[in-house]
Amino acid sequence: MQIEVGKRQKLKVIKKVEFGVYLAPGVGGEERVLLPAKQVPAGCSVGDELEVFVYRDSKDRLISTTAQPALCVGEVAQLTVAQTGKVGAFLSWGLEKDLFLPFREQTRPVKAGDSFPVALYVDKSGRLCATMKIYHYLRTDSPYQKDDKVTGYLYEISRQFGAFVAVDDKFSALIPPREMYGQLQAGSRIEARVAAVHEDGKLVLSVRDKAYMMIGKDAERVMEAIERSGGALPFNDKAAPELIRAKMQMSKNEFKRAVGHLLKEGRVEITENGIRKKQEAG
Questions:
Q1: Residues 6 or more apart from 262 whose CB is under 8 A from it?
Q2: What is the pLDDT of residues 181-217, one digit of tens each?
Q3: Is the Cβ–Cβ distance between 9 and 59 less than 8 Å?
Q4: For residue 256, what are the CA distances in angstroms to 260, 262, 272?
Q5: Hey, what's the torsion of the CAs at 132, 135, 137, 143, to 10 degrees?
Q6: For residue 24, what are the β-bridge partners?
Q7: Mapped to the 3 state alphabet, what secondary structure does the chain carry?
Q8: In this model, does residue 76 exceed pLDDT 90?
Q9: Alpha-carbon distance 258 to 214, whole Å?
Q10: Residues 88 and 81: beta-carbon distance below 8 Å
């Protein structure tokens, strides 16, 4: 057993000194770490076991604390930027020394006050750092099932794969391209519906409700578009799927269902090259 940087662990008190106590994985172990006096619990004696978090102080010395930081190595949590500097940003995470977020681990520019999920890792120098590249750190054991409503942080958008989301800031999820509607932006928080759960536990999300619940909403969106265009759209439900998605932020099937709903209600009529608002008999 050895002392692990960036993790909570139970260590034994092996020596008391004026400025604190030294802790080690076991009696007689060569590896040890200091717990400063202000952190030592009252009545602490040699042989006692304490749960501590181990990190490096401002002088890069190994040190421990009884304080509980927001996350351990390999975990993801939402943190807030305390300040930015020439080499990166520094995040508040519950310890005296702020957590370093290097520029190379930022997926977008950040400023003081920004909050977003990050993962904790140990760099090549043995120092603890944060990264905004959290895909490989997100968990796949969420409690959510198909059609559950969830909220999450959209941390990356890929034209090929879709929008990557950290549900509850810790579970892996994706909005595939076919489900991407509206103005989705990296760095925003979204509400979505679980469209499916993969065998590996990753979630597939949709920002739209089920088709039968969306028909009425989509129909009103079509009517609003017709009104904005002066009473007629210059394309109908036979238009190319790409055109419909670009103009209406809907799939062709969703557009056809919405138009069919409006036809049934007698609110529109389809022309050879478009759709127009039906004039009320007067």
A1: 219, 222, 223, 268
A2: 667 888 888 888 899 999 999 999 988 755 445 677 7
A3: no
A4: 6, 10, 15
A5: 120
A6: 12
A7: CCCCCCCEEEEEEEEEECCEEEEECCCCCCCCEEEEHHHCCCCCCCCCEEEEEEEECCCCCEEEECCCCCCCCCCEEEEEEEEECCCEEEEECCCCCCEEEEHHHCCCCCCCCCEEEEEEEECCCCCEEEECCCHHHCECCCCCCCCCEEEEEEEEEECCCEEEEEECCCEEEEECHHHCCCCCCCCEEEEEEEEEECCCCCEEEECCCCHHHHHHHHHHHHHHHHHHCCCEECCCCCCCHHHHHHHHCCCHHHHHHHHHHHHHCCCEEECCCCEEECCCCC
A8: yes
A9: 9
A10: no
Query: Distance (Å, rounded) from C-alpha 148 to C-alpha 164?
Result: 18
Indicate the pTM of the whole model: 0.69
Whether the CB-CB separation of 145 and 132 falls below 8 Å is answered with no
| Token pair of 87 as six digits | 């080499």
Contact between 27 and 1 under an 8 Å Cβ cutoff? The reply is: no
Q: What is the pLDDT of residue 75?
A: 94
